[in-house]
Amino acid sequence: MNFFEIAQARQSCRNYDAVRPVEEEKLQAILESVRLAPSACNGQPYRLTVCRGKSAAAVAACVMGMGMNKFADKAPVLIVISEDSYVKSAALGAKFKGNDYRSMDIGIAVAYLTAEATAQGLDTCILGWFDDDKIRGICGLNHPVRLVVTLGYRAENDVQRSKKRKDLSDFVSFCD
Ligand SMILES: Cc1cc2nc3c(=O)[nH]c(=O)nc-3n(C[C@H](O)[C@H](O)[C@H](O)COP(=O)(O)O)c2cc1C
Fold first, then answer.
1. Alpha carbon of 122 to those of 32, 104, 140: distances in Å?
2. Which CATH superfamily is domain 13-155 in?
3. Residue whose CB lies within 8 A of the most ligand 1 atoms, among 125, 158, 159, for a mutation test
């Protein structure tokens, strides 16, 4: 798959095959892709906690508050993405420029994660709705959780949807 094909194929999966595990080598390829992601000052200010088995079930319960993300307990793997410290240069840049590079770095890392998962034939859903305190307790984290990603194979009856997106003219302008 070339990148455009990956971008077309990737979609949020909310219907997992709960009994089909994620192969170890595919998981490793996904994590390696995150390792290659760019970040401000190459600081990689994040931690990924891969939750499987009982810890996946425990984290899934933390993303399902108020009836949200009901599908999450069917995903065999949940990856918790939490912040880590900035490297000094990125911290200085963020302070002087008033910019949140860490969130950007996490966003890029998660884009790599989901793209590689698609390339490996797997499915993901990025989750921004979760109980930070509870997940920190389960995973033993001292820094804020920023995203959780469900990972697994889609159920057989899950279909590829057509993409709903803004037109390019709604968010692109050219300055020549
Ligand atoms: C930062 C972020 C947070 C999100 N949080 C959730 C969530 O909590 N639950 C959910 O089902 N989808 C969540 N999504 C998925 C978006 O709804 C989805 O990416 C968007 O509607 C586009 O659809 P697609 O991913 O299928 O192309 C989130 C996506 C992002 C990038």
1. 15, 24, 27
2. NADH Oxidase (3.40.109.10)
3. 125
